[in-house]
Amino acid sequence: NKVHQMTPQIINAGKIRLHNSSTDVDQHFDNLRREYADALNRLRDFVDDAIDTGDFVRASETAMRRHTSHCEDSIRDNQPQQMVENTSQIARLGNRVLMAAKNEADNSEE
């Protein structure tokens, strides 16, 4: 809920910063950005606690395979932007899998 509430604030602060850069504006944006990042991290932690890690890894693998196929299609069709978008998705999913696995390992040690 906090992420949802903060989204318009961070967008507006970014717009203000884009058109009016000053120390105060930059500080305000940086504070909001940090608070927003913290809220996103807490939300991600809640989601990670609520899901089965094995199911998440399997779903991520399926999504990564789908993005790999789309990436190969983009290369064949000479669509570099779609290729970049799909490889970025693969990298993000891989990173999330690593984070979830690390959290699972840390929790099992406790």
Structural class by SSE content: mainly alpha
Low-pLDDT ranges: none
- State the helix count: 4
Kindly report how far apart the N and C termini lie. 29 Å
H/E element string?
Answer: HHHH
What portion of the residues fall into strands of 2 or more residues?
Answer: under 5%
Helix content percent band? over 70%
Characterization of the model:
The protein has 110 residues and is mainly α. The protein is 91% helix and 0% strand. The chain is built from four helices and no strands. The longest helix is centred in the last third of the chain and has 30 residues. The chain starts with a helix and ends with a helix. The relative contact order is 0.09. The model has no long low-confidence stretch (mean pLDDT 93).
Identify the notable features of this structure and list them briefly.
110 residues; mainly alpha
Fold blueprint:
Blueprint: H1 2-19, H2 23-50, H3 53-76, H4 80-109
Give a summary of the structure in a few sentences.
The chain is mainly alpha-helical and 110 residues long.
